[in-house]
Automatic annotation (TrEMBL):
Residues 81-230 form the DUF4328 domain. Keywords: Membrane, Transmembrane, Transmembrane helix. It holds the Pfam family DUF4328. The chain crosses the membrane at residues 40-58, 88-111, 131-147, 168-187, 207-228. It comes from Streptomyces kaempferi. InterPro entries: DUF4328. This is DUF4328 domain-containing protein.
Length: 245
């Protein structure tokens, strides 16, 4: 016998949602542990710090050689030091780029997971859609403020119930990240345009500042990642049965 509905029989329709129950604006959300990703992100940020320290050494080596040239010192010894400084500078650049790219990938996966988890805690407390947790970092101009807004929404949804909401850690991290971004772009442009020993000396000094600012931003980012990961993990463990991570 055919399973097709009998002729003239009414087709089934989905049952309506009970009256008074709001529909989550961003769709269904589910809890997934952020702990492994959070630790991996923190470790990679530590690698960023290590490569920045290496870059500072390269910056100072370049600065010392440029200073010697500005003072009028020449000779085979200075040429060898200049070649060594160039090699260090290039190696530091490759190391920083590799560490940064790896960190970006893992950070974005962690950030998106934290965003979805936050919807489980508070489906209606998010002013931006999930896509902005990733896309917001790549849209010019908007990337200066939108990822912070997403982070604050996640943070507010993840704090322990009854705790006071404070954004100091996130705000300081964001300010340092913007400062390091500006410093890096200025130092990169200055190094690219440097032609004389004095200009190279100034560019190396700017690069030292940019790398130091990046270290500060990365250290604060580690604190933000670990704190938010811990809050989400602990909040899930205290949640209703069946939602623990």
């Amino acid at each position: 016998m055919s399973d097709a509905p009998m002729s003239g029989a009414p087709m089934p329709v989905p049952a309506p949602l009970p009256a008074g129950i709001p529909v989550p604006p961003h769709g269904p959300a589910w809890l997934r542990s952020p702990v492994g990703l959070g630790r991996a992100t923190a470790a990679l940020l530590g690698l960023v710090v290590a490569t920045d320290l290496f870059a500072i050494w390269a910056d100072r080596t370049m600065y010392d050689v440029a200073s010697a040239l500005v003072d009028g010192r020449t000779g085979e010894g200075i040429r060898r030091k200049a070649d060594h400084a160039d090699s260090l500078y290039s190696a530091a650049g490759y190391a920083q780029t590799g560490a940064l790219l790896a960190t970006i990938v893992v950070f974005l996966v962690w950030f998106h997971r934290a965003r979805v988890n936050a919807e489980v805690f508070d489906p209606f407390g998010h002013s931006q859609s999930r896509g902005w947790a990733v896309g917001g970092w790549f849209v010019p101009i908007l990337n200066l403020w939108r990822p912070r807004r997403v982070m604050l929404d996640i943070w507010d949804a993840s704090i322990p119930q009854g705790s006071r909401t404070t954004h100091g850690l996130v705000n300081v991290w964001w300010a340092l990240w913007l400062a390091s971004l500006v410093a890096y772009r200025v130092s990169t442009a200055e190094h690219r345009d440097a032609r004389t020993a004095l200009e190279i000396q100034h560019a190396a000094g700017r690069a030292t500042f940019a790398d130091a600012a990046d270290i500060a931003a990365a250290l604060l980012a580690i604190l933000v990642v670990l704190r938010l990961t811990r809050m989400q993990h602990e909040k899930a463990l205290r949640g209703p049965a069946g939602t623990a991570l």
